[in-house]
Amino acid sequence: MIRNVADCGESIGMSKSGGVGSPLAIGTIFFGNGFAIASTFSRMPGIRDQLGCSPDQLAFALVCMGIGSVLGMPFAGRFVERYSSRTISLVATVILLSSYAALPLSRSLFVLGATLLIAGAGAGVGDVAMNVQGHLVEERRGRVLMPYWHGSFSIGAVFGSFFGWLSAVTGLPLSWQLPTVSAILLVVMGLATTHYLRDGILDSSSEKKAVVCGQQTLPVSGSTRRQERRLRFEPIIIVLGIVILATAVGEGAANDWLALVLVDDRGAAPAVGALTYGGFNLTMAIGRFTGGSAIQRFGRVPVLRSAGTLACAGITALCLVNSTFIALLGAFAWGLGLSVVFPAVISAAGEIPGRGVAAIAQVATIGYAGFLIGAPLIGLLAHWMPLDRALLAIAPIALLITLLASAAKERSGESVR
């Protein structure tokens, strides 16, 4: 009888979603987000010069984007449940790209910070929406696909940073680059959302109906189910959130400090430091494109345990061995280890019975706080010790991925609907 109920729920979900979804459409959304962020932030020196602000003042404005993401994410799950991941993804994309297009108009630090705050809210809400849709397609196709889509984000970041560098070299004004990129991406990403699956949004009339399956009568009340999901609080969400938090701290620290430690403490050429952001994202992309098949074959838990161990070992080698070659190998292991964690944990959150949308939003919110913690943590420690020793603090944080990996084991049951 329980199996009949489950079968009925699956058939209802399939009939409403109408297919198995488009991996290309979701990959386009991830790629576009990575390209937009990297092409914008690679021109941050030009924005700084436009305002004439100091590095400390610019850092304050940049933090606003992370704050906006963390503030927006707690509401993302409710928005997706009420309006659908397609609608929220489209609205969030418009907010994000419009904010980036408006950055050249900033003439004060306050305006820059406010614009980045709005952009961060769009990025955070959009991140949840595209991951919800990604998990839905992954579930319907019965394959591990999330790492590939996050790999598309990393590839987008590589191309975006290259385009930003090219724009700076050729002297393309910010007032042309950012609006043009935003307009093109808005059209491309907007078209991609038209291929989204319907993710089980119930209208007001269907909430009051009952569905008969075999000998079972299943009352359908979407608002009641959503309220119950929000009210229930499960420790597993916190554990998964800590795993993503550890990953975000490691990613944020690498993006902010890796170039500096390679040049200042390990003797790498300045050109190597300049390419570090793109190189680290390329490493992340390699790990994500190979991690999907590894998870499919071995399962999430063994892969995450190996990933955390590899990242910890890479960070330790980079920080303790005074060698440029070892530092580059350590940086590669750092990125490769962290690469698959975020998408794998998002998939695990989506499989929590009855909590798919809410769990993805909550786990992502906890994780994104790590991007706010990483840079200040290393900056504070660097006041008391050399930078390479300060970065060593990331190693035990990465080891948390290994220790808590069992929380991401594959589950059966109700997920995103």
List keywords for this structure.
417 residues; mainly alpha; Growth Hormone, Chain: A; 2 domains; two-stranded antiparallel sheet; 2 strands; globular; disordered C terminus
The proportion of residues forming helix, as a percent range, comes to over 70%
- Would you state the CATH class of the largest domain? Mainly Alpha
What sequence of helices (H) and strands (E) makes up the elements? HHHHHHHHHEEHHHHHHHHHH
**Topology, number of strands:** 2
Arithmetic mean of pLDDT: 80
Q: Per DSSP, what share of the residues sits in E-state strands of 2 or more residues?
A: under 5%
What's the N-to-C terminus distance? 21 Å
Structural class: mainly alpha
Under the CATH scheme, which architecture of the largest domain would be assigned? Up-down Bundle
Mind sketching the topology for me?
Blueprint: H1 2-17, H2 23-41, H3 44-51, H4 55-83, H5 85-102, H6 109-141, H7 146-170, H8 174-193, H9 204-207, E1 210-213, E2 216-219, H10 222-231, H11 235-264, H12 270-274, H13 276-298, H14 300-320, H15 324-339, H16 341-350, H17 356-382, H18 387-391, H19 394-403
Antiparallel strand pairs: 1-2
Helix pairs in contact: 2-6, 2-7, 2-8, 4-5, 4-6, 4-17, 5-6, 5-8, 6-17, 7-13, 7-16, 11-15, 11-16, 11-17, 11-19, 13-14, 13-15, 14-15, 14-19, 16-17
Question: Can you walk me through this structure?
Answer:
The chain is an all-alpha fold and 417 residues long. 79% of the residues lie in helices and 2% in strands. The protein has a two-stranded antiparallel ribbon with strand order 1-2. The longest helix is centred in the first third of the chain and has 33 residues.
